[in-house]
Specification:
Length: 111
């Protein structure tokens, strides 16, 4: 292959120091999603959590993490994320956030 998980982490940490953090986090998540097994999915969850702590005012980050959770059948975790997002985001974004999570609930929620 092209490297180990350790070397990937090292490159990721260096990139975050030198380039636009948010873009690096989003790209790293996409890399980890490719062929992700259970360990890879835990890594993606950890990256999303770290990204949300660092960029807590970004609506798109919460929606992307919600898509990840709902897409894997983790409906309760997705609902919990919505509650976290409502506390973190300004009230002006609550309607857009609720609308996007409602769409996720409609597509992937419990039937």
């Amino acid at each position: 292959q092209y490297g180990s998980p350790e070397s990937l982490d090292e490159v990721f940490r260096e990139a975050v120091r030198r380039v636009d953090d948010l873009a690096i986090y989003r790209n790293m998540i996409q890399v980890c999603l490719v062929g992700a097994d259970a360990e890879g999915q835990e890594r993606v969850r950890a990256l999303y959590e770290k990204m949300l702590r660092k960029f807590r005012g970004n609506l798109d980050n919460f929606v992307a993490y919600g898509q990840f959770l709902y897409g894997r059948g983790q409906v309760k975790e997705g609902r919990d994320l919505l509650q976290r997002a409502l506390k973190s985001l300004p009230k002006s974004e609550h309607v857009a956030l609720t609308s996007r999570f409602a769409q996720l609930e409609f597509r992937h929620g419990e039937k």
